[in-house]
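Board notes (copied after class):
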Amino acid sequence: MPDWNDDFTDAREALIAEIEAEVEETRGFLGIDRVDPRVFQAIRAVPREEFVPASVRDLAYVNRPLAIGHGQTISQPFIVAVMTNALALTPSDRVLEIGTGCGYQTAVLARLARHVYTVEVIERLGQSARDRLIAQRYDNVDFRIGDGWRGWPEYAPYDAIIVTAAAPERPAALIDQLAEGGRMIVPIGPSGGTQRLTRIEKRPGGALHSSGFLPVAFVPLIKTR
């Protein structure tokens, strides 16, 4: 995984400062005062300009989502930081990501966890992300084209699961694939309506604890059948 030092360095630092300010403004929702510095270190290390279409490359470090084709978006950097932070990853964790998209969130996770298993339902997006991440020498990521609702049971259980599209309800198959002591972050709510980022913890013995902590707007989690 290369480190990047280029013309976007100042833009990355300005973005980090903007995210920090937004965390401060929304701490009543988030329940935190700051994002783990390791998350910002990972965001600094991932060149967001390499994950967006060339036509919007100059907007790569604007703190907003951007269209990446196929009706999908790359998430707002603030949301990437908040969701990643809420996973509380350790270097030994195995992570399941539902919704590879362009691969940006995948790369951030790969900087923090031991291994990332990522699932994308749109084949062209998933293949493009795979090629991009392999070219950038991310060797701790496995890729799958498939229905995210089903997860990737062959490699379960996972220490953490992140879902980057909105589910109308808690996704039962993914909860089944979460290890005891594991954490899941998923936006829950209707497509086009109010959704809330929700953290689901599976406690020893399998009991679940859910807490919604931020209103958001995500594209829907696609179910193939």
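Comment from the instructor: The mean pLDDT is 94. The radius of gyration is 16 Å.
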